[in-house]
Structures are given as C-alpha cells and as structure tokens.
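(Structure overview)
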Amino acid sequence: MLKSKDLMPKVGSGVLVRAVALCVGQGDSTLYFIKDGARYATLLADINQSEDLGLDVPELLKAVLGSRPLDIFLNTHPHADHLCGIKELDAKVGFKSVMHADYDPGKHANDGWDEFKKIVERKQKANPSSVIEIDGSYKSQKLFDAQLHVLAPAEYVLDDTEEKSREVRRELIHENCVVFKIGKNAAWVLQPGDADYKAFKNHIFTAHKKDLGAKVLLASHHGSKYFFWDDGKCEDEEAWTDHLCAIDPNSVIISAPRRHESRFDHPDPEAVKLYEEQVGSGEVYHTGAKRHSFIVDIFEDGQIGKVTSDEGGLMDEFQLGKEKPFRTPTFPAGDRKPRQFG
C-alpha cells in the first residue's frame, strides 16, 4: 500500500516523469514529478476537493513537499471541479508558476475561478514571468528534463469566443479546454481535461492527428459520453472514435466517483465500453471504484511502466471528512445539472 512518503521518485531511479492520477471524487487532479537535474520538479494539473469522496490535496502535497512549493499549477479550464481547493493549495503549499489558457468564463463563474483569478492577478503583478498563458502548438517544448506538448486550445478558438455572451462562453468552456501531454519520444501521458467531441472533431483531431499518440490517456470529462457523441446523443448516433484510435493508448484512467455518487452520471457505461474495446477491460482504471489513485512512470530511456495502484494508501492518510463513513449520495432526476456545468 503506497503512502505519501513514497510518491516522489528517488533520484537515480531512472524515472523521467511520474504521473499520479489522484482520487478526488467528482473532479480532476493529477500530480506530475518531472526530473530536473538532481531533483524532481512538481506540476499539479487541476485540483478538486470532494467531501467524503476524495483526497485533501493540499494536505497531501504539504506532506510530500514539506516546505517546498509546487513548481507549477496548471489549470485546464475554469470549472469548479477543476479549481475547488485552489485557495487552500495556495495558502498551504503555494506554487511558483501558473499555466492556463487565459479563458475567462465570466464574472462569478464559480468560487474556484474567482479565487484562481485573484491568485493569477497577484502573481502577475509580483512577477509577470510566473504566469504562463498557453495555447496549442505543433511542437513540444522542454519542461525541465522532459517535454510538454500543448495541443489545445488554438488561439483562434479563444478569439472567436471573446465577444460572446456569458451564457454562450460558459457553454464553450469544454471546447476551449487545455489539452496537453507530458513525456518524450513515444512515451506520453495525455491529459485532455474536459475537452469534448466538439473540441476534438472541430479543432484538435484536424490539427493534431499525428501528435495525439500517448501510452496513457487520462479519460476526458470523467469518463463522460460527450467525448464520443455530439451533445451526448448516444441513443441516436454512432460513436465517433477516430480521436481515440489516433491516441492509441495502452491504458485509460478515469477520474470520477462511482456512478451513483455523481450528479452527472460519470463515468458513462457506454463511454467505458468504448475505452475497454480500445485497451482491454483490465487496462481501464477508475479512481472512484475503490478510492484508489493510479501511478505511471515514464523512464529516461523512453520506456513507460504499467499503471499501478496506491491500493487506497493515500485515502487512508488524506481522506476528506475522514471522521465520517463514505457517503453514497443519490440525486433526483430533476436535480442533475446539464453538461456544461460538469
């Protein structure tokens, strides 16, 4: 059973990148350790705090890093389940740099966005170089000793939404989501955030079909059907899977609670079936199923290890609401929110 003290790779282990898909309930948070000479730099992509269903991410990082701050916090898009806990993270751990797409969802979109915006503005004022606005590129760039390839959003997509109403801009958040991969050579971990069918079919697949390949895919939008169907119409239309075939992963990791615990019905069984058809049922990993986090290593020689589980060790240490038993919430059909809010 893996504990927090074992998360960071040891120098000399041959690990170039370690990706840890954290169990955070209805949301996303992935911790990357990236070799940087004689140390490992850290990047956290998104954060979520899901009472009773996931980890206390700031406390976990404080235990792992001690007095060190995170090197980078990267936000894929400004939804609450990708920014919940950002204020606590900044207060307890801190981070040297911020990477985001500079996509403004509108005033008071959610509490996480409001806090994130304040942090970005404060960092921009103190040190402009600490805030990095990213957009899609045809080339990867050096990230410590590894490579980072940002595939989306394209700058023209962001420009097209600037004059839209707040409601329309909120609808377009997933289409403007940051999609990136970290690794080198043929060994990559691809994190698409909540980028959906429209984002991939209208923009990403067309522009980056040859760049999509990754050995491990962190499933889009918590295993949602909106990755394969336009507006989720799986009853009426055949699934579009060209993008999944182009990624051609060996393994898929889904960050979501159990379906009956999700007000958005994540993960969707039809989407899970398509992932299993691509990689095999034994290579689809679901954080919420047993409250496990999943780890994969990319090595300096370009090889990638198998996905392994912490066996629930991190939840034993850092479960939110640990004094309470796990809840299994249910939601009336009318209480389920539409797709753009999840």
In short: The longest strand covers residues 15-21. Residues 324-341 have pLDDT under 50 and may be disordered. The CA atoms of residues 173 and 328 lie 29 Å apart.
